[in-house]
Every structure is written in structure tokens, then in C-alpha cells.
Amino acid sequence: MEMETAVAAATAEGHASESTAEDRLSGLPDGVLGDIVSLLPTREGARTQILSSRWRHLWRSAPLNLDHGSLCDHPDDFNSVVSRVLAAHPGPGRRFSAPVYHLWGGRATTADAWLRSPALDNLHELELCSYNYRLLYPPATPQPPPEAAFRFSDTLRVATIGECHLPHSTIQGLRFPKLQKLALERVTISESTLHAMIASCRTECLLIQNCSGFRCLRINSITLRGVGVRAYNYHKVLKIGELVIENAPCLENFQHAGFHEYLHISVVSAPKLKTLGCLYSNCNTTLVFVESTLIQGLRVHSLTKTVCTVKILAIDMSALSLDVVINLMRCFPCLEKLYIESIGSGKTNSWRRKHQTLIRSLDIRLKTFVWE
To answer: What ranges does the record give for the region Disordered, renumbered to this chain (predicted)?
Structure first.
């Protein structure tokens, strides 16, 4: 009997502990619980309504996170599900993510109605891009996104736009005062429109991926901390030929990936540049630090002044070459991390006598070396 009493007491204590743990979560203020719900995938966030009466109103009172990835298993159900979600939620919106091919053609009217819904008022994150493997490259006649997509320009903090054409008439006059991250993926946009869009926001992170319609990308921003440019010119549709970092006093991370017939990169002013990559041995990319260094591919053609700010460097070479690595280390004497990717090990690197004096004279600060 005493044993049964002890077991019953322990069980009751366990249930009380579980109840207390549940009460701690449910006892949080509505605002905190609403933030938690709005960070969940759409389907899971809506399902919190069935947990208890305490949670029943939270999903409708929390900012709406409408993410197509968690809504439905079959693409044909997407339109009806989105319409039902927007009708059920009073807003405001936090995030709206939808494949751009659901906004074209016969769906354009419905998409415009979605974007004008009060449930998306005060939207913070907008993602309009393609997740369809059949749309790896822009169509022959890319279409502009619905005009209503830009009614959030005053409140957007993150914007990802893909698989479309951005005409100057749409971007002209818009301002994005709160935009922190901007990504353009497989977008057709003119040079003047692109520069106007970058100038209209105080973004900290910029990604330009497989875009076309311009020959030169100029970076002039006092807020940018990271820039990524990615382009593969297999189909000769990518027209970018020059990238100029004219004035970027806060830029710390510059990443370039892809293969071009020719790309000229000029770094005029980036006094805080810390991370640089990727430099390729098998493409005609030229990197120039104005009044300092000229690197073509991975070959250093001139070195009048070292670049001491760069501490992280990534390079891609067809065959590992110690001579190339040493010359790059001379350009960037403050390197702390070096990442190398190569197809093969290359020829035997007889370095002991050749570089012995040089290595002893260098103040080598390298802490991490990764070779794949």
C-alpha cells in the first residue's frame, strides 16, 4: 500500500510538473506567443488554434506568415488554399512567399487580389521566385510582377524577386526605406533601373543572381555590408561585363560565383572589405583594386600596394599550385582563412628552396586552411 501511495504521489508530481511547464508557455503574453506563431510554417501556425482555448485566437491576431512551401502538397491546390488563408486572417502580414508562375497569365487577376488583401498590410518579407526546375532560365518574354507587389515598398525589410521583368516605369519613384536584404534572381532589368532600385533603399545585403539586361553593375551604398553576384553564362543570355564597387564604406563581404566570357571587377573604395571570393583560374575575370593590385584569373599581374583588409579568401583552381597561392598571399598579407577548391593536385610543388626566403620574410597570419 505504501508503495502504491508513493507511485501515485510521484505520478501526480510528474503531471504537475508537465502542467507547470505547459502553463509557463501558455502564460506568456499574447504578443510573445503571436511572434512565435508567426515564425512557424503557415500550416503549423494555423494548427495552433486547436491546442486550447488559450491559443485559439493567437493565429488570427499574429502577423501572417504565408509560405507556399508548407501550404499544400499539390500545386493545383495552391490558389484555393491561399485564397482561404487570406480570407480567414485579418492581417497584418509578416511574410508572403509564392512561386512567380502562380502570378502570371490567367492567374494574374487572382494574384493581384491576393497582394491587395488587408491580410498582407504592413508586409515585412516578400518572396516571388520560381521553384520549378523547368524555369532555370528566364523565359523568352519575361513578364513583370503584379503592380500590387510594390505597394509594400514602405514596409518591406526583405525582398526576393525572380523570374520576371522589372520595367523602369514600375521601379521609378519607389522608395524602400526599411529594406535590409534584396535578392534579384533571374530577373531582366535595365542598368538604369537596377541602379535606381539599389539607390532607393538602405539595404545591407544584396544578391544579384543570373540576371540580364545590363552590362555594368555599380555599387554605391553607405549601408551595404554584403554583396553576392552569381552568373553562369552557358546560354549567352547574361550580359553583365563590368562590376564596379565605387563607394561602399561598410562593405565587408563580397562573393562572386559563376563563369563569364569576360568580367571586369573594380574595387575603388571598400575600406572594410574582409571576405573575398571566389577567384577562378579557368575564367577571364579580372579583379582590380584601384591603385593597388591587378589579378587576372588567379595570376597577379601587378602589385603596387597590398590589400591589408582582406582576411578571408576563397579561390577555385583547376590544379593546385603553390606558386599561385604564395603570390596571392603576398597581395593579401593579413589572410587568416584560405579556402581552395581544385580538381587535381597539380604538379609536384618544389617549394623548399624557391620560397624559403620569401616565407620567412612574410608575417603569415593564416589560421585556417581548407582544401577540397
So the answer is: 1-27
